[in-house]
Every structure is written in structure tokens, then in C-alpha cells.
């Protein structure tokens, strides 16, 4: 479970990047965090994951405070950032092993996990190549594999489907569903409404730092009393025509 309690963040005196955000994402749920460019999605994710310190408010990850019980909180989740350009000099396999080391994944189980992940993401042949030789989508996949190798209970992903080919995108969505159905939590941001509609149990829509809506897609439609396409609803809600 992720609990975001009255979290705010400003980068300058005039505007709040995130303004008094309250959200609870229970276990067993895929939660999609939507909003236009500059809405506050990445800032929120950085505060959830302890990369950015909020000005006010608290974030609890499975009950552990990211600011005061940081290590315990960080052990609860795996984070896929929006840019996969990390550790470019390492080979794919070295990177995944590094991540497995960081999270104390026993040698006995990691090999099987790595093989399974590589197979599912079509990366078996690329594992011994350096990450800098990878395409954007392959870098994205290796970062995702580095997270999944330690089987975190909570997945936090910033625009995870960007750059993935259709097959890998399908695989990741399938894995997200399996993860939530096993009683765990998935929180991800996206611009793609169709993805959110098909995949998410609930969505939150943020604009200019303020949460505009939180609920199911059906509730969102009822809320706006319209049968227009979701994209249109989204555009109306956020005022971006
Ligand atoms: N380090 C920073 N310094 C100054 N301003 C920042 C910083 N990070 C974010 N901002 C500002 O905070 C606001 C929210 O940005 P954020 O990156 O959270 O949006 P986003 O919803 O993730 O956008 P996108 O979809 O374009 O990635 C924007 O106005 C952005 O310019």
C-alpha cells in the first residue's frame, strides 16, 4: 500500500509543482497516474520514492515512512524511472546482477529469475552486450528487469511503456496485472489514456499539481456525465484542448 498524505512541493515561490496531494493506493491494485506535461507526475513519483523531499506531508510505503524509515520503505518497492539511460558501460547481465546484489537476491534463485525475465522480454541474446549498445526500448527493458529481479512488493513506474515495442508492452502489462492479482501494488504514470482504461483498477488525474479526479474509469465517466471518448474527457478535465 502507498499512502500519500497532504504532500506538497514547490520549486519556486509562485507555483506548487504538487499541491496538497492525498492518495491511497491499496494492495492488489493497478493505479494509473495521468496528467499532461508538467502536471506533477514525476515530482510526485520522486517524492514517493524518496528522491525528492516534499516541503510538507508524508509518504508511507507499506506503512513505512520514506523520510524517517527510508531503508525499510525502499525495500518495499522497485522503481523504473522515465529515463533508462543508466549504467551504460555495464553489460545487461552485469546490471541485473548488480541490482540483485543490492537487494540480497540469493545466487540460487536469481539465475532462474533472470532467465525467465530475459525470455519474457526477448532479451536473452542481448544480456552479454553493453547497455550503451542497446536501443531505447532495450534499455527500458533492462531497467525493468533490474527491478523485477528482486521481486519488490510494490512497483512504481514512470511512463514505463514509452519506447517499448508492442510485444514487450503487452508482456509488461500482463506482468503488471499478474502482480496486482497476486495482491501486490502497481503505481505507474502514463499519457496514454487507452492503456490506463484497459489496465488500471483506478486512475488519478493531476493537473498543475492538483489532483482533479481519483476513481475508476466508469466513475470518471459518471462524474463528467458524458459519453465522449476518454481522451476528450481528459482534455476537458485538464483544460488542454
Ligand atoms: N528540479 C526542478 N526544478 C524546477 N522546476 C521543476 C523541477 N522538477 C519539476 N519542476 C517543475 O514542476 C512542474 C511539474 O513537473 P513534473 O516533471 O513533475 O511534471 P510531469 O507531470 O511529470 O510532466 P511530464 O509528463 O512532462 O514528464 C513543472 O512545472 C516543472 O517545470
Automatic annotation (TrEMBL):
Recorded GO MF terms: ATP binding
SUPFAM superfamilies in alphabetical order: P-loop containing nucleoside triphosphate hydrolases
Source domain of life: Bacteria
InterPro entries attached to this UniProt entry: AAA+_ATPase, ABC_transporter-like_ATP-bd, ABC_Transporter_VariousFunc, P-loop_NTPase
Pfam families per UniProt: ABC_tran
Oxidoreductase as UniProt keyword: no
Disulfide bond is among the record's keywords: no
ABC transporter domain segment(s): 2-233
Signal peptide (UniProt feature, chain positions): none
Protein name from the UniProt record: ABC transporter ATP-binding protein
Species of origin: Brevibacillus ruminantium
